[in-house]
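Ticket opened by: R.M.
Priority: normal
Category: complex prediction / small molecule

The reporter submitted a protein together with flavin-adenine dinucleotide and asked that the result be attached to this ticket for the collaborator who will pick it up next week. Submitted input follows.
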Amino acid sequence: MADYDVLVVGAGLAGMRAALAAQERGAKVAVLSKVHPVRSHSNAAQGGINAALTDRGDDWQDHGYETVKGSDYLGDQDAIEVLAQEAGREIIALEHMGVIFSRGEDGRLGTRRFGGQQRARTFFVSDFTGQAMLHVMFEQVLRAGVEVLDEWFVTSLVVEEGRCAGVVAIELRTGKLHLLRAKAVIIATGGLGRVFEPSTNGLICTGDGMSLAYRAGVPLMDMEMVQYHPTTLKGNGLLMTEAARGEGAYLLNSKGERFMERYAPTMKELASRDVVSRAEQTEINEGRGVDGCVFLDCRHLGKKFILERLHQVYEEGKAFANVDITEQPIPIRPGMHYQMGGIKTDVDGRCWDMKKRWRGVPGLFAAGEAACVSLHGGNRLGANSLLDTVVFGRRAGHCAAEYASQEPLKTVSQARLAHEEERIHALLSRNSSGDSVAKIRLEMGQSMNEHLAVFRNQEGMETALRKVRELRQRYDRVGVRDRGRIFNMGLVFALELGAMLDCAEAITVGALERKESRGAHFRTDMPERDDEHWLKHVLVYHTLEGPPRIDTLPVTITRWQPQKRVY
Ligand SMILES: Cc1cc2nc3c(=O)[nH]c(=O)nc-3n(C[C@H](O)[C@H](O)[C@H](O)COP(=O)(O)OP(=O)(O)OC[C@H]3O[C@@H](n4cnc5c(N)ncnc54)[C@H](O)[C@@H]3O)c2cc1C
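Result attached by the on-call engineer:
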C-alpha cells in the first residue's frame, strides 16, 4: 500500500497541470495514467488556446461574453469569469515553461481567429498546439520530481465514511492490483468521445473517470451536451482543425455555394460550432451535399501558407482522403468531438458542494474534459478547452493540496482490494459465450451517433436508451479471451466498455430530460430554447437499483443576461 497527499488520475494537460500545482504547494503527489503521459489525447489538439491579453487591446470581458453566448447561456458565469480573467497569465506561464508559440510578423506571440469570437485571441503552435504544450508539461513534471505511474489503470475509487480515500489500480505491466491511499484524489481522465462512433477522439477517450466519480456518488452534469465538430473527415471522422476556417477556409455545398452566408450572415464559417454543424447537416439532408458530406475549401490560402500553418491538415488530407488541399476542396461533415458535460465540480475542482445544494464526495476533485465546472454549457468555443485544462487543472491542484494539508489519511480496509480483485477475477474467468467487447462497443457507438447527433428527437433518443440498456445486459455476460495478467489489454477494453455504457446512459437520460433546444442539444420536435423552464443544469446521479436519478440546478448568472443568439 502506497500513501500520498494528492493522487492525480490522468496525465493529460489537466492532470499534469494539477500535479505541478499540488507539488508546488508542498504536497506529496503522484500521477497515474493508463498510457504514457505524452500519449494522452491532449496531444492531438491542433488549433490553439484562447486568452484575451490586455496589451493587445483585448478585454477578458469580451472573451467571457463570447463564451457565455457560445454556451447558449447554460455556462455558469462565475466560472467563465475565472476562465477569462486567468487566461492571460496562464499563456505567459506556458511560454515561460517552454512552449514555443508561433509568432506574428512583429515577433510577438501570434494569434488566429477561432469560431464564435469577434477577435483573434487564439494562441497556437502551428497546428500541433496540444503536442507542444503536453511535452513541455511532461518535462516540467519530471523536473519537479512528481512521481509518475504510467500504464496504470484505475478501476475504482475508494470511499470511506463518505470521503474519498484513494484508488484501486492495475499496474498493467504485471497485472497486479494495488490500493493507493490519498488524502485527496483529482480525476483528470479526459473525455468520452469513443462512446460515439466515429469520433475525433483517441481510442483511449472512454469516459473512465466520469464513470468512476458517478459510481462513487458524484452527479454528472449537462451530459446531453455533446459537441459535433463541423469539420471531420469523411469515413474515419478525423479532425480537420477549426484553425483552417480561422485562417480563412470556406465551406461549400455541392452547388459550390458558400452556404454559411445564409445561416450566419455575420460570422459565416466562424459562427459557433453547433450552428455550423447544424447548417452543414441541413445542407446534406436537403440534398446539397455529396455522399453525406460538404466541402472545406482551403485552395485560396496558397500552398506556402498551408504548409506553414496547416501542415497536419495537409498531411491528413493526403494520407486519409487522397486529397491535396492546396488543389482540391476536401469532403467533411459534422462529427462527435467533445463532451461539454461531466463530473460536477465547483470553480476549485471540488466534487462536493460547500453549500450542500447538490450531493458529492468530499476529498474528490476533477479537472479538464472529465469535469463540468460549467464553462462550456451547451456549446464550447474552439480553443477554450486547452485553456480549461490549465486554468482549472492548476486551481484543482492548489485546492487539493490545501485540503490534503488539513486531512488525515483514512484507514482503508484491505477488503477493498480483495473485493476489486474478485471483480476482476470474475470477469477474467467468465465463459465468453456471448458477444465480444468490440461488437457491443460498435453497436453502442453507432446507435449514439445515429440518435444523439446534431439533430435529435424523442423517438430516436428512446431507441438509443433501449439499445444502451440492452447492451448493458449483454455486457454483463461478456468474456475476455486473454486470461493472463501481463499487459492484458482485453481486460482493459472490457473495463473501459463498462465506463462507456455508464456515460452513454447518462447522456441519453439527460437528453430525454431536457425538453427544449439549446446549444448542441437540438430537438427537431422541440426546436425552441425555453429559458422559462430550462435555464438550468441537468444532474444525473447513479443509483444502485434501477434507473439513474435526475435533479436540476439553476444556472449562475452574474453579468450577462440571456439574449437571442444570432451569429
Ligand atoms: C483531435 C482533437 C483536437 C483538439 N483540438 C483542440 C484545440 O485546438 N484547442 C482546444 O482548446 N481543445 C482542443 N481539443 C480538446 C482538448 O484537446 C481536450 O479537451 C483536452 O486536451 C483534454 O485534456 P485532459 O487533460 O482533460 O484529458 P486527456 O488529455 O484526454 O488525458 C486523459 C488522461 O487520463 C488518463 N486516463 C483515462 N482513464 C484512465 C484510467 N482508467 N486510469 C488511469 N488513467 C486514465 C489517460 O491515460 C490520460 O493521461 C481537441 C480534441 C481533439 C480530440
